[in-house]
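Appendix B. Raw example, untouched.
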Amino acid sequence: MGDVGAYLRDNRGTFVCLNLGVALVTLNGYATSFWVPSMFIRRYGWLPGEIGMVFGLIVGVAGVAPAAIQRMMPNTMRAQATAVYLFVINLIGMGLGPTVVAALTEDAFRDKQAVHYSLAIVGGVSQAAAGVLLLAGLKRYRQSLEYLKDWNDDIKTADPARGRG
């Protein structure tokens, strides 16, 4: 983990912005996945079977997670960087997303019927913060891609046999 830690430290601005930005997108995704069915039951009186059909189609169309971290990491470090990335996005997304919606609904609004307001707040705040982080990380990301190029060139120079392939 020594080389990976050093590489991540050298690219910490990019790595932090990407991890936290996507974690906030994930927070909203988990919050929505967890609470939208309850919202349709509470607000519109839908049955679970109706929700499953509609929500399943919506979730099935959702996009794929970004591969930016894969692109900025040397091949030999991608698995460890991906593990850190998945840990961060799931800790924040799964750990906080549904919980924050529940807390807002029960503690701030004190009304189980207000879950739609909680979803709107969590979605708006997390997506805005994610946008700021991801935008802030864009310049750093470009620098990290250059850093990767230099890193790979240094490896080829230090050990020409490792540079082939």
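End of appendix B.
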